[in-house]
Write a structure and sequence with these properties.
- GO terms for molecular function: DNA-binding transcription factor activity.
- Pfam families: HTH_20, LMWPc.
- Keywords: Arsenical resistance.
- The protein contains 11 helices and 7 strands.
- It is of the alpha/beta class.
- The protein folds into 2 domains: about 90 residues, Winged helix-like DNA-binding domain superfamily/Winged helix DNA-binding domain (Arc Repressor Mutant, subunit A); about 170 residues, 3-Layer(aba) Sandwich (Rossmann fold).
- Strands 5-4-6-7 form a 4-stranded parallel sheet. A 3-stranded antiparallel sheet has the order 1-3-2.
- α2 packs across α4.
Length: about 280
Amino acid sequence: MESKYLDQLAALAHPQRLALFRLLVRRYPDELSAGEIAETLGTRLSTLSTYLNSLRQAGLILQAREGRSLLYRVDMGRSGALMSYLFEDCCRGRPELCPTPFAERRDEARLSRPFNVLFVCTGNSARSIFGEALLRDIGGGRFRAYSAGTAPSSSLNPFALRVLEANGHETSTLRAKDVTEFREGTAPRMDFVFTVCDRAANEDCPAWPGQPVTAHWGLPDPVKATGTEAEKRLAFHGAYSALRQRIELFTALNIDTLDRMALQAAVDDLAVRKDPA
């Protein structure tokens, strides 16, 4: 039994294999192709293949076939067993070695209301702005909604503003913000952080203070839409509708009664639900 965990630790004891594993954790429950992984990590496909095989043989990632492509994602069950082995077996529950259990952090977080929720994308000009406006107006006072970008634009996308205004959202207070604003000591402590674009989720950023519940709700970038004005508008309406569906389901969750694991599973499930046509 212990040799299995030693094999997993050995597989992670390499900077590039560890970077690959961390990427798949950030993108969970997405399945990524080798090409996308190689592009994100700046690794040659031949080298990446060796890393993928090592992690798969150690039981840390899963491989699936879709047509002619092989897709990869983290094996949360076996990876979780490794973490339990480290913290419960190796550390013997000693408080000076083990971090505060997530369950206890969750109980502490229940004392503060409303919940702080941050939506993150790259430019903070469309998708994450949709998230902020939607949750602010749908949340019924239970949530404080924020948005930010890892490389924010100087202004909001005009198509995004038109979609919000057409759906009755107030836009005068919305602005593009850098994600670093929410890592400062004076920033509100987040309960949830959702990335809504793959590029932002791919970035290896520091862990959020307070260990909020995080999930990746990736959506196609409407800013990259080409074609006629009508076709571009359709792309923005599609992103808005998809995010609205997820946020409506999110606000319907009985957050107070869910433990950390159930809540994480619930927000992950929203990422894989079929978006409206």
